[in-house]
Amino acid sequence: MASTSFTLKPNACLISFSRNARLPKSMGTCSFGHITTLPKSMCINTSTNIWVVHAVETCLAKMWREIQGFNNWDDLIEPLHPLLREEIIRYGEFVTACYKVLDFNPTSSRYLNTKYGKRNMLRRVGMEGCGYEVTKYIYATPNIKILNQADTCTSRWVGFVAVSTDEEVKRIGRRDVVVTFRGTVTAPEWVANFMSSLTPAMLDPNRNVHNVMVESGFLSMYTSCDSTSKFNVGSCRDQLISEISRLVNMFKGEEMSITLVGHSMGSSIALLFAYDIAELGLNIVDMRKGRSLQVTVYSFGGPRVGNTQFKERCEELGIKVLRIVNVKDPVTKLPAGLYSWSCYVHVGVELALDFFKMENPADVHDIETYIKYTRCFGSACDRSDWADFLDNVGQTAKNIRNLVQSLRKNMFLR
């Protein structure tokens, strides 16, 4: 299947968002919520391109396969289906949780680890009622050395695995295993984004998939191991395969799905893991009947990961990828080497949100920008309510600009 792209341009005002920004009054609260109903009878207002609801009934449990991309999101993206929009937001909130719990303090004993334990993590970020329980923290190691950078080859926390509770299973129609990855925050991770060399995706030495190649920096993050780490044992890949295998075996008698969510670099790791799951057959629960678990990737602002053969192999394996991108986000154009445009391709269906008319590229990559705009899409925005909100925009952009400038001056790989 060829990659598909849809561009959504809202009737609402065009506003930029930043991670620490406060929502305007007209947007209401940012509490973690669910849509439990779907219109029983719906039609499209052709003048506004917005769904019109006549009656509702509970049906996420009935429609979850379509929402997870079973039919490649046909007729759900243009216009954006309200249930799909809420699921995008719901999964995106798991990524924002990653940033909220990460310890950025270099003097802390938990630097680049989480501030909280697994049991309390979701509660500490205001997601106690989200219907999931964290089962595993995931760590990764960028095997990249940069002069004058102390954290280049150390293991760091990159995400978590969570599974839906019994009560949530009733609402969503299946046992959902969610694996969430944060995006780029340190210099070595940015280097991984900017690397443009392709390398064979030899994840399993017993399987030789012809000409399937992926970006070397992302593969390094996924497969490298820090033997001195006090937080984890094994590579990111080892940890993920072990936990997914355990959970699939635990719930093998139930209807299940595997959902991988990531932002920026995390989107790349999510896609690599999805490919790994399907290639190894970890999602096959009944070989005789050919029954397999649906594997879906929600990618927020993710770069390109591999070549055309990688894309085609992902499609052959039945991996479903929904790429949520801002058309002005430069990270989605990476890797950007001399020959990258001809070597790298995106995987899956693209939901292109055209929500910026800004020249500063650093303002367009923040995960909360994506989520808050998706939440606002299709609603009326009172411009007068955005003044205080806009005063807080830009801190994240400033940090990214400073980091990129520093890398340009001091990037010496060894």
UniProtKB/TrEMBL annotation:
Pfam families linked:
Lipase_3
Record's subcellular location: Plastid, Chloroplast
Give the source's domain of life in one word.
Eukaryota
GO:BP terms for this protein? Answer: lipid catabolic process
Q: Which residues form the Fungal lipase-type domain?
A: 178-336
* GO cellular component terms attached to this protein's record: chloroplast
Q: Which InterPro entries match?
A: AB_hydrolase_fold, Fungal_lipase-type
SUPFAM superfamilies, alphabetically? Answer: alpha/beta-Hydrolases
Single GO MF annotation: phospholipase A1 activity
Major site of localization recorded for this protein: plastid
Task: Keywords in alphabetical order, please.
Answer: Chloroplast, Hydrolase, Lipid degradation, Lipid metabolism, Plastid, Transit peptide
The entry's family comment says:
Belongs to the AB hydrolase superfamily. Lipase family.
Name of the protein:
Fungal lipase-type domain-containing protein
Source organism of this protein record: Kingdonia uniflora
